[in-house]
């Protein structure tokens, strides 16, 4: 008695190749999507940082240029001599000047 060998299964090989190609393309596309998301997040952080930097600079200049509020002068206590008030002095030190070290 002889038994016939089962016919070769040719349908397994093309399915396997198709599955590998699909998996490979999915991995590549998911890698590209992740890279695009990372680049997008970096761009968003950069834009927010630049906006905050310019806002901070604008507010610093505004604070330095606006006149200071005058406080109500307290009357001198009894027995103390009042002196001539001196005008307040303003010292402006720009933060953008870089001093070179030697």
Automatic annotation (TrEMBL):
Molecular function terms, GO-annotated: structural constituent of myelin sheath
GO terms, biological process: peripheral nervous system myelin formation; regulation of myelination
Annotated region described as Disordered, given as residue ranges: 67-102
Keywords, alphabetical: Membrane, Transmembrane, Transmembrane helix
GO CC annotations on file: paranode region of axon; plasma membrane; Schmidt-Lanterman incisure
Alphabetized InterPro entries for the sequence: NCMAP
Membrane-spanning ranges: 32-52
Top-level taxon of the source organism: Eukaryota
Annotated PANTHER family: NONCOMPACT MYELIN-ASSOCIATED PROTEIN (PTHR35974:SF1)
Protein name: Non-compact myelin associated protein
Gene designation: NCMAP
